[in-house]
Amino acid sequence: MSPDTSHTPSDAPGIQYLNLDPGLYIRPEVFQEERALIFSRSWQFMGPVSDVAESGQYLAIDIAGIPVFAIRGRDGTLRGFKNVCRHRGAKLLADGTGKCGLIVCPYHKWSFADTGRLVQAPWYGKDPAIIPEDWPLEPVHLAEWRGLLFAAIEPVESLEDQLGDLPQELADEPVESYRATDTATVSFDANWKVYTDNFVEGYHIPGTHPAFFAAIDFEAFATTAHKGFVKMTAPPKDGLFYRGKWLWMWPNWTLSLFEGGMNVSRINPTSPHRTDQHYRFFFADTSEAGAAARAKSVEGTLSVVREDYEVCTETHRNYAAGAYSPGPLSGRHEKGVQYFQERVARALGL
């Protein structure tokens, strides 16, 4: 953040906060620091626990380029590992869900048990012989919250501490009653922070989302920052599939409520200049009769975010070209941007 505001309380009156230095969005070394200091140290949303309910079921994801997976063991225990063979670093399992007995590397056929133990290294030789106990898969931490599964590589706090006040915010929502249905991954050419800046404010809605703007009472749109998350609310008008509450959680996941459901997404950078957003959709009514309503929520969500990607891509290009210097943040609408950027700056030691 701007040097003259870095130590000022976020609720101090009369302070003009500035947008984050655009160089922090485009420099490769910053991306490496974020991978080490933000993504490796935080809890990352993987998906519903139901994806790994049965023995042998696994769920594999990428965390800012670091592949990990969770697998349900034959003993019923859910374990997490880096999705990397201990031999020469090949990827073991494709991203997504599946089921397996042994975890077999496609490169040289090394095989691992669901406990991470090396079972065999065929054709390796005996001079010297491999010692299986020396080469287990590298573990990662797993935690569950209300039916959602999270992974952390080197967490600096518990999942509960990272969530902050979110459990209280969603205490009355029947999250566990929703069943996972649809998935979607969308990719765009912009830094993950450009998109997050966009997500945590509603100031852009009149210009970027005209149909969405017409479907809410924008004058009543409110953005508030809380411990661990940013909340945006607006009274919806008839016909809007959203219920009027959108949440973003540190450092990179979102949750938006429908009538009888929700979507959860993870904003995952693959480089300083490209981001994947992974969506999971959850509904209480998974019947055939409810298919049209579910499709409306899914397609409505993706339609809105595609409009965001277009403006985010153009913004990122301006940052990369050196055409932009930090401008002022709105005290009315961009407190979420300020909160997010302060968290990033603090994590990077700026």
UniProtKB/TrEMBL annotation:
Pfam families: Rieske (PF00355), Ring_hydroxyl_A (PF00848). It is an enzyme of class 1 (oxidoreductase). InterPro entries: Rieske_2Fe-2S, Rieske_2Fe-2S_sf, Ring_hydroxy_dOase_asu_C_dom, Rng_hydr_dOase-A. Its cofactor is Fe cation. The keyword Iron-sulfur applies. CDD domains: Rieske_RO_Alpha_N. Keywords: 2Fe-2S, Dioxygenase, Iron, Iron-sulfur, Metal-binding, Oxidoreductase. Residues 43-151 form the Rieske domain. One of its GO terms (molecular function) is iron ion binding. Its EC number is 1.14.12.1. PANTHER family: CHOLINE MONOOXYGENASE, CHLOROPLASTIC (PTHR43756). This is Anthranilate 1,2-dioxygenase large subunit. The gene is antA_4.
